[in-house]
């Protein structure tokens, strides 16, 4: 079973208007979206906080007889706040956390561009050294290659050090992406990024609007219910099937 998780921020309204002490500050509402996939079945879960969302995932698995599956695979963008709840709540089960390949490369590029002097050199180093090593899950060799960089090629020791620390911290979440690709397995958390677009971003972001906590989370919940084919049952008798949509079964 594949489970992809990500949070999305939308602009928040000031608590009090018009003379709010928050005036001029950047304010956000957070919605946590989780994409649950089992074979061809998909279910969307939305909650205001990370741990609450993963508790709902556990409840969904229990309600649908999916507790105790051979392996739960979680795909994340590497955010530290996601790993703790997964490791705590799924400790009794077999699970694996996979760092999304795109976000891994994004972090590598960000740190190398700030850490190396030559634009041409850091591109060659990334494409011919770091990227192939990480694609095959060889994190230790990637760290060693960073540690062996010549001081003449480094613009910022801090950026290189941060990249080494990032790779060390996430080593157990970096698989052999090449093998997974060969086996036809996923390496990306893009399912939940698309889910974020559908459930939150398409309506709530980049439209010149700000939202209250209740409004943002309420709309996200309604959209998730619509995508799960639960909106009719909720509107008619206030019940949720809390199961994969029948047409996807």
Report on this model:
The protein has 249 residues and is an alpha/beta fold. The chain has 2 domains: 2-99 and 189-248, Nucleotidyltransferase, domain 5, CATH 3.30.420; 101-178, no CATH class. Helix content is 49%, strand content 15%. The chain has helices at residues 50-63, 80-89, 101-115, 119-135, 139-147, 157-169, 177-182, 190-204, 213-227, 231-237; strands at residues 2-11, 28-38, 41-47, 72-76, 95-99. It has a 5-stranded mixed beta sheet with strand order 3-2-1-4-5, sandwiched between helices. Helix 4 runs antiparallel to helix 5. The protein is globular. The mean pLDDT is 92.
Per CATH, what is the topology of the largest domain? Nucleotidyltransferase, domain 5
Largest sheet: 5 strands, mixed
The total strand number stands at 5
**H/E series, N to C?**
EEEHEHEHHHHHHHH
């Amino acid at each position: 079973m594949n489970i992809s998780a990500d949070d999305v921020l939308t602009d928040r309204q000031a608590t009090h208007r018009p003379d709010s002490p928050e005036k001029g500050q950047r304010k956000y509402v957070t919605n946590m979206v989780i994409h649950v996939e089992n074979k061809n079945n998909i279910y969307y879960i939305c909650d205001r906080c990370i741990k609450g969302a993963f508790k709902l995932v556990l409840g969904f698995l229990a309600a649908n007889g999916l507790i105790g599956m051979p392996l739960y695979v979680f795909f994340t963008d590497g955010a530290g706040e996601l790993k703790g709840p997964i490791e705590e709540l799924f400790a009794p089960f077999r699970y694996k956390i996979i760092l999304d390949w795109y976000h891994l490369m994004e972090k590598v590029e960000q740190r190398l561009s700030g850490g190396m002097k030559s634009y041409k050199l850091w591109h060659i180093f990334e494409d011919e050294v770091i990227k192939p090593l990480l694609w095959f899950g060889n994190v230790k060799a990637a760290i060693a290659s960073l540690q062996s960089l010549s001081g003449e090629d480094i613009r910022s020791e801090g950026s290189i050090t941060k990249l080494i620390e990032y790779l060390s911290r996430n080593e157990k979440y970096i698989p052999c992406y090449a093998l997974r690709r060969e086996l036809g397995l996923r390496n990306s958390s893009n399912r939940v990024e698309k889910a974020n677009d559908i459930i939150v971003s398409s309506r709530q972001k980049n439209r010149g609007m700000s939202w209250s906590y209740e409004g943002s989370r309420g709309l996200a919940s309604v959209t998730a219910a619509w995508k799960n084919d639960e909106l009719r049952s909720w509107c008619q008798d206030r019940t949720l099937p809390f199961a994969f949509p029948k047409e996807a079964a």
